[in-house]
Amino acid sequence: MTNRGWIISKTVSVNSRITDSEIDNDQMNFDPVIGVYTISVVSDMISMHPNTLRKYDKHGLVRPSRTDGRRRLYSETDLLRLQIVKLLTERYGLNLEGAKLILALSMKVKEVVELLEQGVDKNVYKNSAKIASSELRQLFLELGIKI
């Protein structure tokens, strides 16, 4: 059953197509949730041409889930990622590789912030702070920056 941009289905398979030259899912923090918005709806929602959305998918900036018929389905996290890429490319003039790097870094920092917040909520701040510190140090090392 389809309803103006929403795919309503009890079974949707997700296809993953990752190449060796692209940043892996762990670094990019791709959304494991199956999307619900079609490309035409997302295009209207964030004022991006469908071909631009396809280009961003091709370059690995966003990975919408797919139906068995290979139709792209975008999740809320995909929308957020697209809005970030749009901001980085349009306002700050970054190319797609620069936007991809910033996006990967921001997703990693988001994970660290969430880890710290969980530590505060559970009163185990010291342990989560150590883990967060270690994660950030590793992130900088991967960039070739020693802190």
Task: Show the helix and strand layout.
Elements: E1 2-3, E2 6-7, H1 25-28, H2 39-46, H3 50-58, E3 65-66, E4 72-73, H4 76-90, H5 96-121, H6 125-142
Antiparallel strand pairs: 1-2, 3-4
Helix pairs in contact: 4-5, 5-6
Walk me through the structure:
The chain is mainly alpha-helical and 147 residues long. The protein has 2 domains: 95 residues, Multidrug-efflux Transporter Regulator, Chain: A, Domain 2; 40 residues, no CATH class. It contains 6 helices and 4 strands, in the order E-E-H-H-H-E-E-H-H-H. The chain has a two-stranded antiparallel sheet with strand order 1-2. A hairpin with a 5-residue loop joins strand 3 and strand 4. Helix 4 packs across helix 5 and helix 5 runs antiparallel to helix 6. The longest helix has 26 residues. It starts with a strand and ends in a 5-residue tail after the last helix. The N terminus is likely disordered.
